[in-house]
Write a structure and sequence with these properties.
The structure is a homodimer of 197-residue chains. Chain A is of the alpha+beta class. Chain A folds into two domains: 143 residues, Jelly Rolls, CATH 2.60.120; 51 residues. Chain A is 51% helix and 22% strand. Chain A has nine helices and eight strands. In chain A, a hairpin with a 5-residue loop joins strand 4 and strand 5. The mean pLDDT of chain A is 95. At the A-B interface, helix 3 and helix 5 of A face helix 3 and helix 5 of B. Chain A binds a DNA duplex (30 and 30 nucleotides) through helix 9.
Chain lengths: 197, 197
DNA sequence: CGTCTATTTGAATGTACTCAAAAGCGGTGG
DNA sequence: CCACCGCTTTTGAGTACATTCAAATAGACG
């Protein structure tokens, strides 16, 4: 059924009554995105949070000189938005782009707020979601501060094997904070080292 | 009154009845830390979350070669813990150290869990807390990926003027992910540039 | 098939690090 | 109150990691 993925995601942390399921799903707006479509542009307002049902999205920041930094990849069963902008209403610092044909559910900020009012149990769900997001980001910061580019690449490939098959090297490089050329050099090093072992 | 600071912090997001205040404060354990005392050691278990009432703490990771990376500074009115370890029970990746004589409130993991059971409203409070923490960390990641060391230093001084007066340059450098020597060079550059303008 | 983008390669460059030593600063004990 | 100790900060030389730029090659898509 249509909402199976998202309801399953939610049931990992909270249990809803059928009325609550009804109310929640009525707040969702299903969207189909084709590859390369931009769901959000930098400097625009981000008024929704999204659940990826199928496909994959990428969130990236573009600095003044045009250099991209990938903030996150979101594959199915992930929630994604530009949280700073979604919460505070300031202009977005990121683009959100479909990197595959995708099916997503959109929950508007108004419905997000209403959801907490109508079903306070969702506070728990999003508390856990935010908590996990915070934990992930903090580990990433520690790794960015204490590991070399090559070590970060290894960890990334270990942690997200499915994502690594989906995205280009250029995108991985921008997630790691290095240039595509340097990632290419790292990979070359590895294959030489492997051959000589 | 003893709990004024922490209750004030909580009332920014939720409103408690006097019974709830009573229950909540009964779960807290007040601690006084003298400067340089370690509240948590890396590789140990982190069984509590802390609220800084007075003073200042620093959270830092130590890699295999002994290099420190500061994860966060927590001054008064901040909550701090090693979230990955507090939530999942795995060994800690960080030290938490008092950088001044400090007064803190400790909330144990058991009471943290109990709190949600007894006063579900706290789900909302911590949802917002985690949300803000996530937002902060994500902005930090974007900045670490897209800005030079000097730009990161400027942003840090702008964003946390009170912290910058409290901590050593070495600690700031380890927060920015650079060596103390290089931070010193950046500062020298600045003072030269300023003199010539 | 042609076009566009991703990836690789290499040379030159720049940013940030290491190591060592000197200078500065704060706290503590005599 | 001053002298000393330990730690932080500065300085400088040499080095390493990562970038830039340009060009060639490879792959993907229409």
């Amino acid at each position: 059924m249509e909402f199976q993925g998202i309801l399953n995601n939610i049931s990992r942390h909270i249990t809803l009554s059928s009325d609550e399921v009804e109310l929640f799903t009525s707040m969702l707006n299903k969207k189909s995105l084709s590859r390369k479509l931009l769901l959000l542009r930098q400097d625009q307002l981000c008024r929704s949070i999204y659940f990826v049902d199928k496909g994959a999205l990428r969130t990236y920041h573009c600095d003044k000189s045009g250099r991209e930094s990938t903030v996150m990849f979101a594959v199915n069963d992930w929630w994604v938005t530009d949280m700073p902008c979604f919460i505070s209403g300031q202009p977005s610092m990121v683009f959100i782009e479909a990197i595959e044909d995708s099916e997503i559910f959109e929950l508007s900020k108004a419905n997000f707020d209403l959801l907490f009012e109508k079903i306070p149990l969702f506070e728990r769900f999003f508390r856990i979601l935010m908590q996990n997001a915070y934990i992930r980001e903090q580990l990433r910061i520690i790794q960015n501060l204490s590991l070399t580019a090559e070590e970060r690449y290894d960890k990334f490939m270990d942690k997200y094997p499915q994502i690594s098959k989906l995205v280009t090297q250029k995108q991985i490089a921008s997630y790691l904070g290095i240039t595509p050329e340097f990632l290419s050099a790292i990979r070359k090093n590895k294959s030489v080292a492997k051959r000589n072992q």
